UniProtKB/TrEMBL annotation:
Part of the signal recognition particle protein translocation system, which is composed of SRP and FtsY. Belongs to the GTP-binding SRP family. SRP54 subfamily. The gene is ffh. GTP binds at residues 106-113, 189-193, 247-250. It catalyses: GTP + H2O = GDP + phosphate + H(+). Residues 268-281 form the SRP54-type proteins GTP-binding domain. Its EC number is 3.6.5.4. This is Signal recognition particle protein. Composed of three domains: the N-terminal N domain, which is responsible for interactions with the ribosome, the central G domain, which binds GTP, and the C-terminal M domain, which binds the RNA and the signal sequence of the RNC. It is an enzyme of class 3 (hydrolase). GO terms for molecular function: 7S RNA binding; GTP binding; GTPase activity.
Length: 440
């Protein structure tokens, strides 16, 4: 995400290297580059111009303290301004109603249906809510089916009336149904068109008026750049929505939408979508996003994801196995599964400070563990639990079975061996010294 923009900003800050103080003269070139980087990322012209003016006002004349280089100081100012531009503090959704009604709006293909499912799943698993999904698309039967598929995946009921052509009625009936059945959140997925049109706007405005949602969310595809901002404006003029959902931030987006939307419609971005799966949803934190845009990584989110996936019981089991020298490839596989649950590799790497930049030319596959898993799956259960029995003949057979090269099998065996030794060392009496050495 945002690789291009981070790169360009990084270059812009380099211009200041070697200067002791930020002056009107030496900062001009840097700011020109910052502005160009923003424009290239599809940030609105006026926003980019105002942005650099504000940064300049803050930067000029500041004495650079001993520990900070002027470039670093400017990065900090830019980071703070970016955070402000994207909304300051993170904004939550209003769940005060009973049921709380959430109306989803946006163009067709923006990711509305997918996000409705993600939000229902998020509220159900993380907020202990009982959500009901409502299919209000009266034009495309496929859209209703799609929501039913999503609902089934996450175990959430989907309310629909395939024969009814009145979305206002469907939404109202759904809310009645929710009250009768004890659902405390109702998420209404509406019809979208390929472009903003009057009929769609009137229809959703009518639904909005009739059901008085606690929260109206506008879903937009971040890949559409400036268009995203224009569509947001059109929807906001009619619906006065409460928040924005930016989808497809896992893709190769240039970042312009994330940066511009808040200042154009003055509504916060509340969530982001980072993949097609139901758990690819994140709360939007402007400061973390600013850090990612500047290539500073997002360690906080990374640690949070790790904590969410951390399974204490599993960890204890693994420790016992290591102590008894029984750690095998099956355990290795389950560790890989844990890491995979944290998200796709490209995203994870992007959250490590500096790594995004360092590895930008390295092709990281979404499923970076695919080959390793294939090799392990080609082993027999005995081989997996006791890797020492794998001799060259068996290695050849495993290579053939998994369709990988013998060298890859060798490499995996070696890595596994080193890892096992390392883990053993951390645990045994020597491990205590090692821990001490590392400051533990
Ligand atoms: P709708 O027409 O607005 O309801 O859009 P859909 O929910 O059907 O999504 C359109 C396409 O975008 C589908 O193929 C989704 O799988 C995909 N999609 C939705 N959200 C994301 C996301 O955050 N990341 C990626 N990569 N794809 C997404």
């Amino acid at each position: 995400m945002f690789n291009n923009l981070s790169d360009k900003l990084d270059k812009a800050f380099h211009i200041l290297k070697g200067h002791g103080k930020i002056t009107e003269v030496n900062v001009a070139d840097t700011l020109k580059e910052v502005r160009r980087a923003l424009l290239d990322a599809d940030v609105n012209f006026k926003i980019a111009k105002d942005f650099t003016t504000r940064v300049k006002e803050k930067a000029i004349g500041q004495d650079v303290l001993t520990t900070l280089q002027p470039g670093q100081l400017l990065v900090k100012i830019v980071k703070d301004e970016l955070t402000e531009l994207m909304g300051g503090d993170a904004a939550g959704v209003n769940l005060s109603g009973n049921p709380s009604v959430i109306l989803m709006s946006g163009l067709q293909g923006s990711g509305k249906t997918t996000f409705s499912g993600k939000l229902a799943n998020f509220l159900q698993t993380k907020k202990n809510k009982k959500p009901l999904l409502v299919a209000c698309d009266i034009y495309r039967p496929a859209a209703i089916n799609q929501l039913h598929v999503v609902g089934e995946q996450i175990g959430v009921e989907v309310y629909s009336e395939p024969e009814n052509k009145n979305p206002v009625e469907i939404a109202q009936n759904a809310i009645k149904h929710a009250k009768a059945k004890g659902y405390n959140v109702v998420i209404v997925d509406t019809a979208g068109r390929l472009a903003v049109d009057e009929e769609m706007m009137t229809e959703i405005a009518n639904v909005h008026k009739a059901i008085q949602p606690q929260e109206t969310l506008f879903v937009v595809d971040s890949m559409t750049g400036q268009d995203a901002v224009n569509t947001a404006k059109a929807f906001n003029d009619r619906l006065n929505f409460d928040g924005v959902i930016l989808t497809k931030l896992d893709g190769d987006t240039r970042g312009g939408a994330a940066i511009s939307i808040k200042s154009v419609v003055d509504k916060p971005i509340k969530f982001i979508g980072t993949g097609e799966k139901m758990d690819a949803i994140d709360i939007f934190y402007p400061s973390r996003m600013a850090e990612r845009i500047l290539g500073m990584g997002d360690v906080v989110s990374l640690v949070e994801r790790a904590q969410e996936q951390y399974d204490e019981e599993e960890a204890r089991k693994i420790q016992k196995k290591i102590a008894k020298n029984e750690f095998g490839f099956d355990d290795f596989l389950s560790q890989i599964q844990q890491v995979k649950k944290m998200g796709n590799m490209k995203d994870l790497v992007g959250m490590i400070p500096g790594a995004g930049k360092a590895l930008k030319d390295v092709e990281i596959e979404d499923d970076a563990f695919k080959h390793i898993e294939a090799i392990i799956h080609s082993m027999t259960p005995q081989e997996r639990s006791k890797p020492s029995i794998i001799d060259i003949k068996r290695k050849n057979r495993i290579a053939k079975g998994s369709g990988r090269k013998l060298e890859e099998v060798n490499q995996l065996m070696k890595q596994f061996d080193q890892m096992s030794k390392m883990m053993k060392m951390m645990q045994g009496p020597g491990g205590k010294n090692l821990m001490k050495m590392m400051g533990g």
